[in-house]
């Protein structure tokens, strides 16, 4: 890096952020630093604290302890209006008596943006969101997905320090969702906006994120690029949560240069020496392949053809595992299949802590 290049500015940082409701801790010691222009995606099971974290960043919820900075300024004790953020809520509310145009333009009107400039901005954003033909309608005359896009439009006409999106595409049908996902990605590329984005959708997380934050029960499990999260999950929770179908996880023992999974044995070569005696072995469904010289012969218990590929379920060491294979298989034929394990893509976890073992 050149000596004169300044350190990238920080869009958001939280330091030991804790949020409790009475005696219940909902967020524990959240430490996140996000560079300007990053697209940070929060994922995790329902109830893990994603919306709460977003509300804390917005200032809609007071944090119990810790500090929070936006664009390098400590805003821990600042009200929402002074934080320079634009938010799209999970349960968005539009002004029912205003038209779509007025809903999108309301914030600009309050801030005294000149009318012509405001109208041009509304038009631009409405086109982007494919709602320009609906500008004169009232919210009650819109579908759920259209309302959601209006809510998004209200945020996009702003030029805030930080955008906060809570599942903004959840009400859209599959096709529109894919289109909007591409639009959001383009918007991020062209504007370089800093975005914190909550989603349940794996593909959304993987395709949009600069980095993903995986939460479980209010604890950060891992922060990393989509590739890091997918290829080197920090623990079995992340391995299982990210990826569909999830990573196969199977308890095994390492002895004599091999991994023993139940009665089966997979030669590990040099790798075995770097592993403890007991492990949880992980391999993604796509890293199992049909082979003439297989590691294992498995008997399918279920075969699902998706069209371009098939998922084969089989049992190993008391676990149901899945292989993702190209092409199509006869769903009725449960004839044994020879599978090879891609050793370079195998991941191992500690049986006590569930943490990934560096090999
Ligand atoms: N006002 C409140 N009082 C007490 N508990 C609350 C309050 N608001 C949220 N919680 C609890 O905090 C936890 C986190 O909720 P949150 O809404 O942040 O989850 P989430 O990750 O956004 O879930 P989802 O994916 O379902 O939207 C939940 O267990 C919830 O019940
Ligand atoms: Mg939520």
Structural class: alpha+beta
Number of domains: 2
Alpha-carbon distance between the two ends: 29 Å
CATH topology-level fold name of the largest domain: Rossmann fold
Largest sheet: 6 strands, mixed
Which architecture of the largest domain per CATH?
A: 3-Layer(aba) Sandwich
H/E element sequence: EEEHEEEHHHEHEHEEHHEEEEEEEEEEE
Please characterize this protein's 3D structure:
With 359 residues, the chain is α+β, with helices and mostly antiparallel strands. The protein has two domains: 10-241, P-loop containing nucleotide triphosphate hydrolases (Rossmann fold, 3-Layer(aba) Sandwich), CATH 3.40.50; 248-350, no CATH class. Helix content is 23%, strand content 34%. It contains eight helices and 21 strands. It has helices spanning 50-58, 100-110, 115-128, 144-156, 174-191, 202-208, 226-231, 236-241; strands spanning 10-21, 24-35, 39-43, 65-70, 73-74, 85-88, 162-166, 195-198, 211-216, 219-224, 248-255, 258-261, 264-267, 278-283, 288-290, 296-298, 300-305, 309-316, 319-326, 337-341, 347-350. The strands form five sheets. A six-stranded mixed β-sheet has the order 6-7-8-3-9-10, sandwiched between helices. The chain has a five-stranded antiparallel β-sheet with strand order 13-12-11-14-21. A four-stranded antiparallel β-sheet has the order 2-1-4-5, with helices on one face. It is globular. The model has no long low-confidence stretch (mean pLDDT 93). Magnesium ion binds at residues 50-51, 90, 166.
């Amino acid at each position: 890096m050149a000596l004169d290049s300044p350190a990238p500015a920080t869009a958001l940082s939280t330091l030991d952020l804790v949020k409790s409701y009475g005696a219940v801790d909902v967020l524990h010691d959240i430490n996140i630093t996000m560079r300007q222009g990053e697209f940070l995606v929060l994922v995790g099971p329902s109830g893990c604290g994603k919306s709460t974290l977003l509300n804390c960043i917005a200032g809609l919820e007071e944090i119990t302890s810790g500090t929070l900075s936006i664009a390098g300024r400590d805003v821990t004790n600042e009200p929402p209006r002074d934080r320079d953020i634009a938010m799209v809520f999970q349960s968005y509310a539009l002004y029912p008596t205003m038209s779509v145009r007025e809903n999108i333009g309301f914030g600009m009107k309050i801030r005294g943006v000149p009318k012509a400039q405001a109208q041009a901005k509304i038009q631009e954003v409405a086109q982007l969101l494919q709602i320009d033909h609906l500008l004169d309608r009232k919210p009650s005359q819109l579908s759920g997905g259209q309302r959601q896009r209006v809510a998004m439009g209200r945020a996009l006409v702003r030029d805030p320090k930080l955008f906060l999106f809570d599942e903004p595409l959840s009400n859209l049908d599959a096709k529109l969702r894919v289109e909007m996902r591409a639009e959001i990605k383009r918007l991020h590329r062209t504007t370089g906006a800093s975005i914190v984005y909550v989603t349940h959708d794996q593909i959304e997380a993987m395709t949009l994120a600069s980095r993903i934050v995986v939460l479980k029960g209010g604890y950060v499990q891992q922060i990393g690029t989509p590739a890091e999260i997918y290829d080197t999950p920090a623990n079995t929770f992340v391995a299982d949560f990210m990826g569909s179908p999830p990573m196969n996880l199977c308890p095994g023992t390492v002895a004599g240069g091999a991994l023993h999974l139940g009665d089966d044995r997979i030669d590990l070569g040099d790798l075995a020496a770097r592993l403890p005696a007991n492990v949880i072995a992980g391999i993604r469904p796509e890293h199992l392949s049909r082979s003439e010289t297989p590691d294992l012969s498995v008997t399918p218990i279920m075969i699902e053809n998706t069209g371009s590929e098939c998922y084969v379920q089989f049992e190993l060491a008391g676990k149901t595992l899945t292989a993702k294979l190209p092409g199509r298989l006869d769903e009725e034929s449960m004839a044994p299949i020879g599978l090879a394990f891609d050793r370079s893509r195998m991941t191992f976890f500690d049986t006590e802590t569930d943490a990934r073992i560096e090999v």
